[in-house]
Specification:
The protein is α/β, with parallel strands linked by helices. Helices cover 35% and strands 11% of the residues. The protein has a domain of 172 residues: Rhodanese-like domain (Oxidized Rhodanese, domain 1, 3-Layer(aba) Sandwich). Pfam families: M-inducer_phosp (PF06617), Rhodanese (PF00581). It catalyses: O-phospho-L-tyrosyl-[protein] + H2O = L-tyrosyl-[protein] + phosphate.
């Protein structure tokens, strides 16, 4: 299976050796080089075609030189469509192929500190409805099932009116351990399937590290109602059983 996040944002140590193969040294006048230049002069060069990067395909609108320039100007990893670097500062998380942000970074987004660069921030709460109703981040959309995700985000994709701004999606569940990461991967997989590589409707995806459990105690003012209902709440055992059966 393709790695959904590592390839669009490959480390420079992997990408650069591929890119450097384009620039042939011009000052070596060895017999082999002389013969090679004569051959190139008489026949069209096949090396001009861009080598595949990431998932093994390359769109005509993205060439090696452009990616090289992006990497030279910004040492952060590139988002899923190679167009720019990730905007938000990330932290280490459970799943190495996904991008995590801290509760502090989430609060910075909610308070508009990135409003000049972000047109739309979609917060996807992957918890079950009874958890969401017991307290959630203001503005978060409750999408606990895969079909909910496809209906809301892919049936009519959210696109920025201002092309210079971004649409970012932040996933979380109770702990951001299983449900949030699973839904994040699901969206990227479906997004890849309905677009010509490397284009994506949602190239910039994040996970809220620690989930609602870690965010709520620090930023209750950003939650409504200002409460926290755990998945294993005593009063909702039947709801938990029902939703677990539906998600299988």
């Amino acid at each position: 299976c393709r790695q959904l996040f590592r390839s669009p944002s490959m480390p420079t140590s992997v990408i650069r050796p591929i890119l450097k193969r384009i620039d042939r040294p011009q000052d070596r006048d060895t017999p082999v080089e002389t013969k090679r230049r004569r051959s190139v002069a008489s026949t069209p060069s096949k090396e001009a075609a861009a080598e595949p990067v990431g998932d093994g395909e390359m769109s005509g609108s993205f060439c090696h030189e452009e990616i090289e320039n992006l990497l030279a100007n910004d040492h952060r990893e590139l988002i899923g469509d190679f167009s720019k670097a990730y905007l938000l500062q990330t932290v280490e998380g459970k799943h190495q192929d996904l991008k995590y942000i801290s509760p502090e970074m989430m609060a910075a987004v909610l308070t508009g500190q990135f409003s000049s660069l972000i047109e739309s921030c979609v917060i996807v709460d992957c918890r079950y409805p009874y958890e969401y109703e017991g307290g959630h981040i203001k503005g978060a959309i409750n999408l606990p099932m895969e079909q909910d995700m496809e209906e809301f985000l892919l049936k009519k994709p959210i696109v920025p009116f201002d092309a210079s701004k971004r649409v970012i999606v932040i996933f979380h569940c109770e702990f951001s351990s299983e449900r949030g990461p699973r839904m994040c991967r699901f969206l990227r997989e479906k997004d890849r399937a309905c677009n010509e590589y490397p284009h994506l409707h949602y190239p910039e995806l994040y996970i809220l590290k620690g989930g609602y459990r870690e965010f709520f105690p620090q930023y209750q003012s950003h939650c409504e109602p200002q409460d926290y209902r755990p998945m294993h709440h005593e009063d909702f055992k039947e709801d938990l059983r029902k939703f677990r059966l539906k998600s299988r």
